[in-house]
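re: the backbone from monday

yeah here it is again, tokenized this time
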């Protein structure tokens, strides 16, 4: 039985114009016009029995026109013509409500098989009809596909579900100004994921704001900082080292070779030669014949950076026999590699880059990469060493100039594993790119790291779906995020945005018929979002449910803190942490007696 039970007398008005998905309805009753609201729902009669067309009210206008234009010439006792009112409602069609589809009743489809006929009746969706329709929307999919985001603003009793498959298959973006609820929304999605039996995802946590998230299925890891070098922290402690031998050749060249140096081509060529030689020596020493025959310079094979430096020093000081017997002359590379060698040594001893160049000895073992991959790519079911599930990786101690390169290194590692896994064995994984504008920028600087990051994420955005890699781009400045990556994201969760450039980016991502939605961006409440895309059956406003664990991203209440009459923390502790490059965690208070 249809949930829409209207009589002709209930009609809001009649269709006067149809243009693809845009319908213009003329409303005769001024009182009914006053009750209408922009972004509310309307239902129109379809040319097919058993179907109704659902639309969103985009614009309401009331204009004075000459009576003759309406064909309703009236006059007063003096024969003067009287102006009439033309009340119009612009509606964007978003789908079809079918009374019966196979064995299912009341099914909403995001397709338009028909358009309304001229003079077809239009009705407002409100009261019981709205409640019944939202119930249909809330029951659109099986339990396995549901990603519960919150409740619809149209009806706060109706739960807003996204299609979990399409949300990650087609990639997504979550955008919003500072304080709009962006991190809150991300935390909500992560909690829903973590509750699944075999969840798999990685969060690139740039500022450590997701540390408070605690739930079964959520694991916290962090990139090693200077303090971990002395503590000898390992994967078992939740600390990740990313040894230099994981870097691709081009990334190494960008780190060590000064492109402005006139000897840069020779330096790059010799780096390639010496690295291949060092990797070959490692494989031969370990008797890995099956790899030895096919490895390349980009193969993830350990090698000794000390051996590379020693070989470069030999070439830099090399003397060869001269033209005359008993004489010597400088070799082809004599004195041309000193700057390269110094850069290598400086990087090697820089404690900020300890996670690259001062990693524990076990990272040089051939099987160590298996452990790293298990830590990053394993699903919830693989609980060995407390790994698997949703991994929140803290990058807060990575130097800002190295951040794009290091995040792209992790992303490429995940993508490569998925690419080289047989299709039937692939376990899908989602990458959450928090503060994406910092490492997937629209305008790249001279830093080679940004170029590598953009290339890596562009490839994942274009090809990730084939290999089971989903992308969720999170940013407060969508106008500063790479456009190619954004264009591949078919799901949009937009919180409040006040910057005009950012609003324009969101407008371009919206379908033409829903462009009016962007007008709501500056006035959305905290925790409220516009949700549009393949995963959302109903493009609408959603009030995101508060996550169980709040991310550490709330805005500091300045005035309240200044109003507190209490002693503030010792700043000397902050100075000490700065010097040691390690945040001093506050001591855990002792339990009260009797507890």
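seq for it, each position gets an aa:
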């Amino acid at each position: 039985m249809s949930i829409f039970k209207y009589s002709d007398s209930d009609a809001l008005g009649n269709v006067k114009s149809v243009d693809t998905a845009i319908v213009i309805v003329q409303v005769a009753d001024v009182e009914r016009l006053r009750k209408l609201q922009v972004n509310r729902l309307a239902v129109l009669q379809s040319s097919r029995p058993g179907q109704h067309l659902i639309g969103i009210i985009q614009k309401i206008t009331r204009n004075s026109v000459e009576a003759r234009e309406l064909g309703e010439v009236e006059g007063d006792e003096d024969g003067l013509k009287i102006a009439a009112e033309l009340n119009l409602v612009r509606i964007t069609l978003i789908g079809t409500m079918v009374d019966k589809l196979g064995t299912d009743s009341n099914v909403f489809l995001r397709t338009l098989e028909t358009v309304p006929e001229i003079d077809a009746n239009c009705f407002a969706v409100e009261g019981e009809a709205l409640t019944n329709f939202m119930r249909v929307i809330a029951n659109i999919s099986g339990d396995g596909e549901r990603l519960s985001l919150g409740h619809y603003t149209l009806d706060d009793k109706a739960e807003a579900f996204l299609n979990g498959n399409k949300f990650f298959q087609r990639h997504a973006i979550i955008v919003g100004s500072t304080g709009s609820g962006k991190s809150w929304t991300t935390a909500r999605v992560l909690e829903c994921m973590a509750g699944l039996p075999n969840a798999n995802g990685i969060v690139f946590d740039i500022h450590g704001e997701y540390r408070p998230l605690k739930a079964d299925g959520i694991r916290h890891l962090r990139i090693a900082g200077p303090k971990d070098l002395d503590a000898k922290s390992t994967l078992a402690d939740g600390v990740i080292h990313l040894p230099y031998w994981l870097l691709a050749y081009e990334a190494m060249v960008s780190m060590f070779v000064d492109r402005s140096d006139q000897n840069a081509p020779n330096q790059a060529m010799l780096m390639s030669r010496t690295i291949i030689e060092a990797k070959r020596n490692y494989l031969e020493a370990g008797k890995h014949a099956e790899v030895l025959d096919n490895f390349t310079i980009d193969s993830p094979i350990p090698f000794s950076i000390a051996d590379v430096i020693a070989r470069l020093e030999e070439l830099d000081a090399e003397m060869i026999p001269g033209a005359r017997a008993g004489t010597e002359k400088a070799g082809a590379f004599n004195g041309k590699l000193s700057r390269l060698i110094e850069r290598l040594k400086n990087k090697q001893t820089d404690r900020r880059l300890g996670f690259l160049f001062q990693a524990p000895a076990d990272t040089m073992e051939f099987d160590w990469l298996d452990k790293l991959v298990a830590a990053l790519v394993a699903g919830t079911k693989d609980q060995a060493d407390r790994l698997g599930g949703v991994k929140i990786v803290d990058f807060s101690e990575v130097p800002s100039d190295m951040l794009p390169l290091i995040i792209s290194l992790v992303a490429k590692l995940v993508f490569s594993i998925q690419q080289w896994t047989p299709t039937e064995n692939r376990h899908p994984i989602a990458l959450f790119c928090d503060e994406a504008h910092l490492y997937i920028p629209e305008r790249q600087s001279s830093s080679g790291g940004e170029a590598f990051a953009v290339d890596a994420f562009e490839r994942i955005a274009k090809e990730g779906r084939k290999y089971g890699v989903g992308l969720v781009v999170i940013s407060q400045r969508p106008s500063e995020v790479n456009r190619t990556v954004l264009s591949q994201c078919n799901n949009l969760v937009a919180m409040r945005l006040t910057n005009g450039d950012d609003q324009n980016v969101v407008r371009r991502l919206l379908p033409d018929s829903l462009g009016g939605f962007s007008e709501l961006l500056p006035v959305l409440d905290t925790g409220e979002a516009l949700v549009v895309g393949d995963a959302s059956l109903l493009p609408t406003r959603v009030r995101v449910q508060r996550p169980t664990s709040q991310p550490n991203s709330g805005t500091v209440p300045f005035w309240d803190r200044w109003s507190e009459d209490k002693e503030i923390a010792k700043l000397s502790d902050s100075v000490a942490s700065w010097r040691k490059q390690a945040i001093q965690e506050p001591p855990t208070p002792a339990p009260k007696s009797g507890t």
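The mean pLDDT is 85. The longest strand covers residues 84-101.
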